[in-house]
Amino acid sequence: MTASTPRAAWGNLLRRLHFYIGLFVGPFIFFAALTGTLYVATPQLESMLYKHALYSDTTGEAQPLAEQIAVAEKAIGDQLRLQAVRPGLIGGETTRVMFADPTLGPSENRAIFVDPVSLEVRGDMTVYGTSGILPLRQKIDYLHSSLMLGDFGRLYSELAASWMWIAALGGIALWFYTRPKRRINNAFQSRRRVHVALGWTLLGGMLLFSATGLTWSQWAGGNVDKLRTQMNWLTPQVNTQLRGPAAEVDSHAEHRGHHDAMMMPEMAMDLTLFDNVLHVAREAGIDANKLEIRPAKMAEQAWTVTEIDRGWPTQVDAVAIDPHSMQILDQTRFADFPLMAKLTRWGVDFHMGILFGLVNQLILIVFGVSLCVLIAWGYRMWWMRRPALASRNPVLTLCQCWLSLPASGRGVTLFISVMLGMMMPVMGFSLAFFVLIDWLRWRAQSLLSLSESTK
User: Fold this and answer.
1) Mean pLDDT, to the nearest integer, of 96-105?
2) pLDDT per residue as tens digits for the range 288-340
3) Is residue 242 within 8 Å of residue 320, measured between CB atoms?
4) How many other CB atoms sit within 10 Å of the CB of residue 180?
């Protein structure tokens, strides 16, 4: 079938591409939306499930951090290296003492939860990443990001993120090219209007989640980081070197599954330094109630105290402190971050449902459920119209649609496809897969037609 006009050719190409994205990538986007919704819907459930470890009814003055950490070290033994401490600075919250356990996965730590007042050990479990999520949400997060299949499984979420923005924009463009000039009231047009209305409503969210998802992806994420480096959009990091320049830090390391920096030889640690470092950080303006103290791994490194409150207003300031002189060596203030670094921080935190608290959660739950409905509705539309479409046009392929475009259109689309395939390799390989499937379908239909004509 050859399109009679350029407009019809573009419409055919958009329709066929949108169909293949929905057919092959739709299930992955659906699963990502479903598990993402579960992730943002369960913080309160996690708080109730692990209430004994997270909270305490004990009242009174908190004991020094040194004593709290000593209790945690006694509970865990001396076989693990102390990684970080998150003090319980709000009444009723426990202190989280985290240890690097080589038996755990990347960005995972073993945490001992200590009552700051009574020094009772109230929990011992695995925590994950800067967000510090506990086992329940950790499993949901692994489902969401990698189907619990490690790095190989992360290809699924990258596939979904790579195509979702194209599906969204392509669907809107397809609507412009194929909408009827007058209102037609039939079953298909009614179903189509529901699909279009959902698409328009969810457009902004699909673009945002596609962009933030790509920053965490395995292949496209590396290209995004290169671009951010060239444009000076990286998140500022405190210099922890007592001498020399700071090393660059990947701000998405915990999501990519990278390990921390190279393990250094063990050092004897004076636990009273934690109280001293916290005091110095407070004097320097680190005033959030959620913060993390990381001791140096080498004698030539500074300690860091970092705010980890990702709610609004964002508190992620950090200081590097010389543990010998107790002097501030370096500090970063969120207020001084480049605009793109701020937007990245806010986009990531909104994606995780923590930027605006409960309101953020509710918005994402509605979005996730609506996106699942949008995808399911698209499948229903295809199924209801499939017999008539196949009968009218059994062998219309991507290649045929592309060849029907004007020469300039073919050149532009080919150039864009190659560039996008280079920036997002998973999308590039999947597009080649679409073309291969379409060619095999065309070949099978052609052989069937030839066989019928010779009878």
Assistant:
1) 96
2) 999 999 999 888 899 999 999 999 999 999 999 999 999 999 999 999 999 99
3) no
4) 8
